[in-house]
Write a structure and sequence with these properties.
single chain; alpha+beta; five-stranded antiparallel beta sheet
Length: 74
């Protein structure tokens, strides 16, 4: 039986020159799972923000080597 070793993924929020780096990240078995979780989390975040607060921000998912893997508009 093959075992899967989880990897660590990070979520950085970026707008122009402003970057909020995720220093903790989450562990997951694959990037597809992380993207789905990020989409769910962003939907919750959008519901709590006032209109315009999230305008122009992007969520960047990166791996533990610093590679940008996926971008989602916030």
């Amino acid at each position: 039986m093959e075992s899967t070793v989880p990897s660590r993924y990070y979520f950085d929020a970026v707008k122009d020159d402003d970057v909020i780096r995720d220093e903790h990240g989450v562990e997951a078995n694959n990037v597809a799972d992380v993207i789905e979780q990020a989409k769910l989390g962003l939907e919750e975040l959008r519901q709590t923000l006032r209109l315009g607060e999230s305008e122009g921000w992007t969520l960047i998912i990166r791996d533990d080597k610093g590679n940008n893997l996926h971008r989602l508009p916030i």
